[in-house]
Design brief:
The chain is α+β, with helices and mostly antiparallel strands. It has helices at 23-30, 41-72, 95-104, 148-157; strands spanning 2-5, 18-20, 36-38, 76-80, 88-93, 114-115, 120-122, 124-133, 136-145. It has 2 domains: 2-61, Ribosomal protein L9, N-terminal domain (Ribosomal Protein L9, domain 1), CATH 3.40.5; 73-167, Ribosomal Protein L9, domain 2, CATH 3.10.430.100.
Length: 179
Amino acid sequence: MEVILLERIEKLGQMGDVVKVKPGFARNFLLPKNKALRKTKQNLEHFEKQKAQLEADNITHKKEASEVGTKLDGLSVTIIRAAGESGQLYGSVTSRDIAEAVSKKGIKIAKEQITLDRALKTLGLEPIRVTLHPEVSVEVVANIARTDEEAKQQLKLGRAVITTEESDSEPSPARENTN
């Protein structure tokens, strides 16, 4: 199916490009979210009439996103979760958890703007990509810890604090399993 892009879409094209996509992608994502129009003669004419307005709106949105991005870039948010001694979480941290943590810092973002390439299931400092606009993305650090004190210690060390007693030493031979 051929569509006309109404905004820049990563790995697909720029605004105004006519691209061929799978029908399901167009029906389920591009068309319902007003990111594209079906390629018809009528839609091409409509797009040409609206092109200047769409580009002006895009520039305005990009400028607003850049302003928010300067506030957000490098921000560190703390997320408190229960975890085992090995640092494995009893669950996972989702994009909604990160969006809520960022919103508590005074910057409102939606969970859809957060890009997680994998599930966050361990303690530690995780870089998270936040896409504010198709052309503006920033990185936020999620500090996943069991307590506020542990979160402060992780920020200071720059790594996860697995156990409090033996975090800097090797496990003693007496505790090794000899089976």
